[in-house]
Amino acid sequence: MISPEVTPDIPIANLETISYDKLLEADSQEIAKLVENCKSLGFFYLNLTGTARRVLDDSNSVFRVMEDYFDQPLNAKLEDARQSVTHGYTPIGTYTGAKKGEKDCYETLKVSHAEMKIHDPQLPATVKTHMNLFENFIFGSHTIVIKLLESLSTGLGLAGEQRFEKRHCDDVPSRTTMVLFRYPRQLTEGGGIGHNMHTDIGSLTLLFCRDYGLQILSPSTNQWGFVIPKPGHAVINVGDSLRFLSGHQLASCVHRVLPITERQEHNRYSIAYFLRPDDNVIYVDSKGRQLSARTWHDEKYETFREPHERQEKDAILTGGMERNGVFV
């Protein structure tokens, strides 16, 4: 495990830092900086060391819980499998990996915002045991990403029902979900690797990670760069749905996850909160089709399972932002 204070000799992605506290204060310069970043790269650090410190602390506690969870035998984890892309456990090798011809090498546990609100009886036992922690973390994360939407709406001059937060209502079904990821240590080469390149399906992603592995494709150079884990900060990125809702003004950046060496040399963990629009929201996608946010979500998840050859024939995986590793 490489300390975030030590930068390895690898290509690095340069990300801007946005202050969450300044957005809470409606600081016009910070809002303008946020909008400009989301129009160009769509990836940035969010400083959470002030008002949102509780979410940072909760993320550290979630990391400890998920280490114990993923260390369980596979049969125990499969008890939480619900054949769902928004709920429960998904094993390694379910989707196409980051290298051609190979499967992925990560496992996940998903808890949706909706099932947490009602304390769904099917919640995993680990979540039930730590209910207060997961409630605080999920609802705290939700508050942060909604504030980002409000700031973007203000910065873009949106009003009334056109504001982004109006398409993300608590009382309307959506695919908004927290996902816990483990990329397990690989003792030998082979057996799949990483997380294939893609753009995120939803509106905004709030990501906590302690280790290197996340790479973004630079729109200006078409080169991959690793994101430095930054203590006290989350990594935020714009997803397809927010790009479509903005009339394609905002950028949904292509990214992937790979180890910095030939194989994953230690267990790598990350926590993502995926904010997605209300299921019934209608927008125009990268193909010019008018469709619902739910339809885009379901179509894209099916694409994650397709072999590389089929993925390359359809730009849905990268949201129409990329062709053959080059931005379009």
TrEMBL record:
Annotated GO MF terms: metal ion binding; oxidoreductase activity
Annotated protein name in UniProt: Fe2OG dioxygenase domain-containing protein
Keyword Oxidoreductase: yes
KW Iron (keyword) present: yes
PROSITE patterns referenced in this protein's UniProt entry, alphabetically: FE2OG_OXY
Assigned keywords, A-Z: Iron, Metal-binding, Oxidoreductase
Organism of provenance: Talaromyces amestolkiae
Domain Fe2OG dioxygenase stretches: 174-277
Pfam families xref list: 2OG-FeII_Oxy, DIOX_N
Assigned protein family: Belongs to the iron/ascorbate-dependent oxidoreductase family.
